[in-house]
Amino acid sequence: MSLLAQQLVLAILLGGVYVAVAIGFSLVWGILNIINLSHGAFIVVGAYITWTLFGRLGLDPFLSLPIDAAALFALGYLLQRGLINRVIRAPVFFTLLLTFGVNLAIVNLLLAVFTSDFRSVTPPYAGSGIVLGPVVIPSIRLAAFAIALLLAALLSLLMRRTRIGAAIQAVASDRDAAQLVGIDLRHTYALTYGIGAACAGVAGGLLSTVQAISPTAGEPYTLQAFVVVVLGGLGSVTATVVGGLLFGLIEVFGQSAPGLGAGYANAIAFAVLVIVLIVRPQGLLGR
Amino acid sequence: MAEPLFSVRGVKAGYGETLVLHGVDLDVDTGELIALIGANGAGKSTLLGTLSGLVPPAAGSVRLAGRELAGARPEAIVAAGLAHVPQGRRLFGGLTVERNLLLGAYLRRDAEVRADVERVVGYFPALRDKLGRDAATLSGGEQQMVAIARGLMARPKVLMIDEPSLGLAPNLVDRVIDVCAEINRAGTAILLVEQDVLVALDFARRGYVLETGRIVLTGMAAELRNDDRVRKAYLGV
Questions:
Q1: Does the model's ipTM exceed the 0.90 cut?
Q2: Residue A104 domain-assigned?
Q3: Chain A contacts of B103, Cβ < 8 Å?
Q4: Of A51, A236, B180, B237, which sits most exposed with the smallest number of CB within 10 A?
Q5: Residue A207 belongs to what domain range?
Q6: Per the domain annotation, does A283 fall within a domain?
């Protein structure tokens, strides 16, 4: 019973991480119709920024999150405006290819700069936890969970309450009509991609506190983001939150099922993907 | 003669290699309501798209209040005072009516935007209790009202309205065109593209007839209504 409760807590906390991993990916896919294969690489860049600031300056990993967001926003904005925008109206295959290429470039750049060693960020409070009867809630994972949900809430607020959010949704709804009210399409595309990358940066900063990172660690994140978005459905922050939390539960309980183990993580993810695509292709909350 | 508020000279445009507009000349003066009529495929929507910057012009000049706009980006054209209510309403589905209207004022930074929502809703009282609804859930007539109201939110000098009566019930057609005339009387010049030629010429001061990408006939609305060619081609008499 206590084992089950402990697993449930860990699954929910893991789900929060998945929300952070997927939220920017979902935005970019939903608004720009780009399946961003460099999303995982953006996450890893965010993780390395946090790791560097922690190692060199002793900056608390949670305090470096705004820096991750700002740096990745700038990278995403420029990358979209300068490169990806050139194929924005091309079939989805071209953006897949291009973002895959961006992914390779970033991964190799990271390999050159940081080598392939695994790194981890271990602040003094890394091992601490809150004990609730038989259940231990790891402090860092709880904080990461809270920040992931805060990130989702902020993104939702941005979309629902601000002029930029209205412009982003207008562009997604009707590109021509958006231009007719005076929305600068190229700027809005780049802004959307930049915000998606900023979310990836925050996710990377969070992940660096709970997992070891390496330059090639990004690809599973892209897969996880893809599964979460397919599971929850495209088009809303809420759907991604539901998808992320559910995927956390599925993964933790899937791996502890008899005969399975941690080695089955990817298999479970792909199985979820296939089942959702067969049973409910628009996702749980998709339109 | 002073330059008219809005003047179009020799505008050519098309898609890829194919020209749709072969040199269009057209004027709209301050406070005028102008009807642009023509058969399906004559190039009316392409012309409006070119004027508002969605379709790049191959040649020609588009001047508004003394500024050259040909080849400018759509947002610069809206900012200069030319708004376009596109055919088929083209509202932002998933967003509320109110946010659709506020997006119409996207480029405005003045403090009167909120007050203007009230003002444009004043033209369409039916929208007042629907401001919080998803624009996509409105009826066709209500959507058309939102589309026109959204265009007005930019406070344009010239408002181009493409086929507002398309797909509307006859009583709604009159209502929508009535409001266009009311907006015009309040001081906004209007270029109205309308399939219902009789209605359009009833309300307009002057009219232009577009055929296969060229203006083939122009004159006062009353003259056009009695012109044999117009009667034969568009009024079916």
A1: yes
A2: yes
A3: 166-167, 170, 178, 181, 183
A4: B237
A5: 2-121+130-216
A6: no
